[in-house]
Amino acid sequence: MTLQWTAVALFLYAEIVVILILCIPFISARRWQSIFQLRIWSWMARFWNKVFLTMIIVLIVLFLDAVREVRKYSSKEIGTDAKVQPNMFDHLHMKLFRAQRNLYISGFAVFLWLVMKRVITLINQLAAVSGTTAALQMQADDANKAVEKYTKDNELLKRTLMEGVGDKATAEGMELLRTEVGKLKDELKSSENALKKSQAEADGTKKQMEGLAREYERLLKEHQELQVILNLETAGRCKRRVCSCRHTKHKFQQHTLNPAKNVIL
Predict the structure, then answer these.
(1) Which of 24, 32, 69, 186 has the smallest number of Cβ neighbours within 10 A?
(2) What's the Cα-to-Cα distance from 79 to each of 76, 82, 84, 212, 244, rounded to whole Å?
(3) Statement: residue 167 has pLDDT above 60
């Protein structure tokens, strides 16, 4: 394996390890967000888009080169030189095997690079939605407590007025409390609406992540099926070429032995 394909293979292994680490279930999205907010990641975020586009371009170029090599060695047939050089058949198929290996390595590297970027984006979005939901939940709890407190005070003032003990100042105070309770109820209602919206966004993000996981599994199965079909076709083609090479070699040996027999006679 050449230096460039060794680097692509190492990059592919690194992508697999990173994706497996990101899929660890007991690490929450907010924990991952706190990790991504470290100083080193903040410094690297400035160059992230450039690095991503550069790696995509390099991997796509290598993938297209691997496709070209596979087409080149798949369409090449054994000529008359195989009679003189019997090892040419093995050499040709060794080149084809290497081209197919490079095709799989570069293709998976491109695919997992896109998957890794999407997974990191979804983790950040889920962490942001979770943080907003928690903040809105705290605000709603505080508003509920305040409403309960002012409601009790309001009931106490009403009871005092009904008993005839209160005066004009008490009535004015109760009116102010009623106004404040109304405002708090409006704030509570808006907080509940925001909480419901955040929960709906969190559910949508979760469904999107599940859909991405199912799509990844489906693509992986399709790739495995295509690889099995390609291996079967390659094996059948190699078998036919081996038979053809043996038949040609047998005819060549008969042709070289017949003149010797004629000379002896």
Answers:
(1) 24
(2) 9, 6, 10, 49, 11
(3) no
Cα dihedral 76, 81, 82, 87 sign: negative
Q: Cα 227 to chain center, whole Å?
A: 21
Write the pLDDT tens digit of every residue in 176-197. 777 877 887 888 888 888 888 8
Tokens of 105: 């390595």
Is pLDDT of 262 > 50?
A: no
**Rounded to whole angstroms, how far apart are CA atoms 113 and 56?**
8
Burial class (CB in 10 A: 0-12, 13-18, 19+), 49: exposed
Structure tokens at 2: 């050449």
Contact between residue 18 and residue 114 where contact means Cβ atoms under 8 Å apart: no
| Other residues' Cβ atoms within 10 Å of the Cβ of residue 28 | 13
Contacts for 86 with CB less than 8 Å, ≥ 6 apart: 245, 249
- Res 264: pLDDT: 40
Answer whether 0.70 is exceeded by the pTM: no
Q: Convert the pLDDT of each residue in 239-258 to its tens digit.
A: 666 666 666 666 656 655 55
- 188-224 burial, b for 16+ CB within 10 Å, e for fewer? beebeebbeebeebbeebeeebeeeeeebeeeeeeee
